[in-house]
Amino acid sequence: MLVQVFSLIILIASSILGIFVYLANRHSSINKSFSLICFSIALWIFTNLMVDLSRTEAQGLLWTRLTLFGVTIAPLFFIYFTTVFPKKTIKINKYQWLFLIILAIIIIFLIPTKFNVESFKFIHPEQISSTPGLQPISDVEIKFGSLYTFFMIYFLVCVAIGIRLLIKNYRTGSKKERLKIKYLLLGFLITIMIAITTNAILPILGNASLSGIGPSSTIFFLVFTIYAIVTRDLFNIRVVLVQLVVLVIGVILLMQILFNESLQMRILNGSIFILFCFFGWLLIRSVLREIKLREDLALANKELKKLDEAKTEFLSIASHQLRTPLTAIKGYLGMIDEGIYGKVSENVHKTIHKVDDSNERLIRLVNSLLDISRLEMGRMEFDLEKVNIEEIVESIVDELHVAAKKKGLNLVFEHPKEEIPEITVDPLKIRQVIINLVDNAIKYTYKGEIIVNCESVGDKVRISVSDTGMGIARKEVGEIFKIYRRGTGVRLFPEGSGVGLYVARKLVEAHHGKIWVESKGKGKGSIFFIELPTRNGLGRFLTKF
Ligand code: ADP
Question: Is the pTM above the cut of 0.70?
Fold first, then answer.
């Protein structure tokens, strides 16, 4: 009796759930296929209940045969569901579908025949007419036909396909999606194991006394799936669920009022019902409000993303447009300086150099901005080559030697004691990074020296640039590698922009390397480090920017 009441509750719950989920979003394949699963489960439970309610053996036979219908169509909907949940990624083979559908049609055709259930007999027929209501299932003798074995094979094939698809989804899914698939799988497996034992294995072995439990086991599948769907942020379904819970509790309370005989209890239940309606309404309203808020936020986020993309696009176009005239200016300045347009006095000469310096800075800034927009749009390209990093570092030190000398600084390259292995990098990009570090060291050092070092450390090559300059405050050590960030001590250097180290970090990270700085504090100099892996074969170079 208890089992049947429980089945009835699940029958009602899964039917209502099916309707609500469908109404929540009629266009979503997830909603549609889940509703269909709910309805076929409801159908299965219904036919099982009808078996228990049968008054004659003919009725019993008919309903027992019909129980097969719901469980034949449910697996097809389940397979479809696994192809769209949590997102539409997997396409199932056309022939596989056709095969399953043909099998299902064969089973459905054979449902009314004796291949399905051969006979249905009451063990104590004399008790039937005298006791109206449910028949204890242990008092009937059911003989199953050969279709049952055929059905079992079909069912297990479907289960195997469903599980395989879920596992495939699991492998390709994100962390959040994986968790949902786990819940779905867990609920599904518990239900299947109980149902197969009570409604297939045991009946085939001649014991149908537990077949009433099978339909109730679907509760695990329904509850776990609902949980998986709700945590997927399908807002509509969340409202539907709250409404559903409120509705079910409301109906139970209402029934208590109607079926209670004492007036006192009716008044008490009536007041509880009114209170419940009020709080239920508040609950639904607050959920709706939260959803609206979230939807607005999601919309605002989308707009922001668009704006960000537009900004990057603008940055890229603007930088391209700026670069051409700047390069032209550089060319003309060079020609004036060389006296192509007439002799230049010492004063003009000096001024041209100052203009050229500023122009050079602008070109570097524009190049950095271009790099940033390329990085943000994922359009940075790398030309990899096997290089001798020691040679690159030495040539940079030679190049920047003059600039350091001009400031009265000593720029030295410490040759490595051991031989450095060749590494695979984009030489131009790595050059750009090291130039940036040495450039900064010259810029932020008033007196003393800058030492550039290169060494092999385990399976890495480490390049360091140490200076005796203004140093970096401890709390700024991690900050300066972020975009547009400058240290607090740079007020005297207005020409910086705070993008160089950001680009450097991105480029080094793209090479699977590391960049960091160490400093004892303000005024105590700083050492910048770059570490690049030596076994950085082309195949390992996967990071795309
Ligand atoms: P910029 O030099 O144009 O400001 P960077 O991204 O190259 O931009 O550097 C970011 C900040 O890091 C600088 O503003 C400065 O505060 C700090 N910094 C970089 N190099 C050094 C250095 N060698 N010594 C002290 N501070 C430095």
Answer: no
